[in-house]
Specification:
The chain is about 45% helix and about 15% strand. It is of the alpha/beta class.
Length: about 450
C-alpha cells in the first residue's frame, strides 16, 4: 500500500486487491481539447494538440487511469465510412459502406492507416511522460458498434432476415478489434476498453446469438496478451449485464442509464470490476460542484460494497464540462469524509418543469415523433435511434412530424422529466413512450406510427 500510486491503485483494483482509495478515471476525450483551447477536430487529428491536451488532463484531474483518444469512428473511417465533423464533439458516421449490400470486408487496420500513426505516436509519448504513475487506456470500437457503422440500421433487420451474414460480419469486426488491440498494446497501453454503445439496444437473445462469441474472442485476445480489458457500454444495458460478464472482461463500465446498485451484485458474482457512472449532462455539464460531489457520495453510500469499483464519468465528458465540476469529482473520490462535511448544507438545484410546454398530443392531425437523445452528435446509439426516426419520416413524408431533443439543454431535461422518461435514447409517438433503449426496425417503427394516424 505504501508504494501505491494511481497506476498501481487501478491495477490492484482490476486484480481484486485492496487499495487505499477507489480509482478515478476521467473520460476526457474532446473535453481535453477544451482545456487548451483546441476544437474537437484539432484534438482528434493533430499530434501536438492532442498530446498537449492529455498532459493538461493529467495535471488538472490527477487520474489513476486515462484514455488517450475517445473516438469510436477511427476504425470506421479507415474501413470506408465518411465522417461528419463538429467543433465541440467527436465526429459521427455519415455513410455506411455496407448499407444495401452484404459484403464481408477483408481489410484489417495497419499502423499506417487513417489516424492510427498519429494515435500511436501520442500513445508512446504519453507512456513516456506519465506512464510510470498513470494507467493508459486504449479505446477501440466494439464489434457490434463497428458493424453498425458499416451496415447502418440494416443491421437490426439482419438479426432476423439474415443471421448467418450478421455472424460473419461480426466475426470480421471482432478481428478488427483484435488488430486494434495489438496496435495499441504495442504502443504501451495498459487497458484496452472495448467501447460498444449499441450493445444496449439489443435483447439478451440477440446478444447471446450474435455478440457473445465475438466479444469473448476479443477479451480472450486481450487476456492472452497480458493486458487488462474493459467492456464499455452506454445506455440501458441492464438486461445484458450478465451476458456481458460472461464474455469475461476485467471490467464493465456503464453510464447513468444503469443503476449501479442493482447490477453490482451481478458483476461481483463474476468477479468483475464495475465502473461508472457520473451523469454527463445533469451533473457534469449543467450541475454545480456540489451536485457532482453529492452524486458520488450518494453512490458510494448506497453501493453494497466498494470492492471491485472504479469511479468515472458515464462516458466521454461533454466538451464544455466546467473544469471545477471535474475537480469536485476528484475531491469526492479521493476524500469522501471531508466531502460529506462540505455537503452538510447541500441544496439541489431544482429544475423548473413549468419552463416547457408539452404539445397538444390529443388533437394532433398527424403523428409527432419525439426522439430524446443524450446527443446524437456524440452518442453512437443515439445516432442510430435518430436515424431510424429520420428514415421513417422520410418514407412517410408530410404524414408525420419529427423532432429531436438533446438533453444537453436544461429545457430538454425539464421536458424529459415532465414526460417521465427514465432512459435514453428513446422514441415517443404523440407523447407515448414506444421505444426505450431498443432501436426499432424500420418495419416496427412504421407500424407503430400508423397506429396514431387518423383513419382515411
Amino acid at each position: 500500500m505504501n508504494s501505491e500510486n494511481g497506476k498501481t491503485r487501478l491495477f490492484r483494483t482490476l486484480q481484486h486487491q485492496p487499495t487505499s482509495t477507489i480509482p478515478w478515471v476521467p473520460f476526457a476525450g474532446v473535453h481535453a481539447g477544451k482545456l487548451k483551447g483546441y476544437s474537437a477536430r484539432e484534438v482528434l487529428t493533430e499530434h501536438d494538440k492532442l498530446l498537449d491536451s492529455l498532459i493538461e488532463v493529467n495535471r488538472l484531474y490527477d487520474p489513476d487511469g486515462q484514455p488517450v483518444l475517445f473516438d469510436l469512428q477511427v476504425e470506421a473511417e479507415i474501413l470506408g465510412c465518411q465522417l461528419a465533423w463538429a467543433e465541440d464533439a467527436p465526429p459521427s458516421v455519415a455513410s455506411h459502406p455496407l448499407a444495401g449490400h452484404k459484403d464481408i470486408p477483408v481489410k484489417l487496420p495497419t499502423s499506417e492507416d487513417g489516424r492510427i500513426p498519429m494515435i500511436l505516436k501520442v500513445m508512446k509519448a504519453m507512456k513516456a511522460a506519465v506512464g510510470d504513475h498513470t494507467a493508459l487506456y486504449g479505446l477501440i470500437t466494439g464489434p457490434f458498434t463497428l458493424a453498425s457503422h458499416l451496415r447502418g440500421t440494416d443491421i437490426f433487420l439482419d438479426t432476423m432476415d439474415d443471421p448467418e451474414y450478421l455472424k460473419r460480419l461480426m466475426a470480421y469486426t471482432s478481428q478488427v478489434a483484435q488488430r486494434m488491440t495489438d496496435l495499441y498494446l504495442g504502443a504501451g497501453m495498459d487497458v484496452i476498453a472495448v467501447v460498444d454503445p449499441v450493445t444496449s439496444h439489443v435483447s439478451p437473445r440477440t446478444f447471446s446469438s450474435f455478440l457473445a462469441d465475438p466479444f469473448s474472442d476479443v477479451f480472450e485476445h486481450i487476456r492472452v496478451n497480458e493486458a487488462f480489458s474493459s467492456f464499455f457500454v452506454c445506455g440501458d444495458a441492464t438486461k445484458n449485464i450478465e451476458g456481458m460478464c460472461q464474455t469475461k472482461p476485467d471490467c464493465v463500465a456503464v453510464d447513468e442509464n444503469i443503476d449501479m446498485v442493482a447490477v453490482k451484485p451481478i458483476t461481483d458474482r463474476y468477479k468483475i470490476v464495475l465502473e461508472g457512472n457520473i451523469p454527463l449532462t445533469t451533473r457534469m455539464l449543467l450541475g454545480t460542484q456540489q451536485d457532482n460531489m453529492k452524486y458520488i457520495i450518494d453512490l458510494l453510500d448506497t453501493l453494497p460494497n466498494q470492492d471491485n469499483l472504479i469511479i468515472s464519468p458515464g462516458c466521454d465528458m461533454p466538451y464544455d464540462t466546467p473544469v471545477e465540476n471535474v475537480i469536485a469529482a476528484v475531491e469526492a473520490v479521493r476524500d469522501p469524509e471531508n466531502t460529506r462535511l462540505i455537503l452538510a448544507n447541500y441544496h439541489a438545484t431544482e429544475i423548473d418543469l413549468d419552463s416547457v410546454d408539452l404539445p397538444d398530443y390529443v388533437n394532433r392531425k398527424i403523428p409527432l415523433i419525439e426522439v430524446f437523445t443524450l446527443d446524437s452528435a456524440t452518442c453512437a446509439a443515439c445516432t442510430y435511434m435518430l436515424g431510424a426516426a429520420e428514415r421513417a419520416a422520410q418514407e412517410m413524408g408530410n404524414g408525420i412530424d419529427m423532432v429531436e431533443y438533446k438533453i444537453t439543454k436544461p429545457e430538454n431535461i425539464a421536458r424529459m422529466m415532465k414526460l417521465g422518461i427514465k432512459n435514453l435514447p428513446c422514441i415517443l409517438i404523440n407523447g407515448d413512450l414506444r421505444f426505450s433503449s431498443l432501436i426499432p426496425s424500420h418495419h416496427e417503427l412504421i407500424e407503430a406510427i400508423q397506429e396514431y394516424q387518423a383513419p382515411s
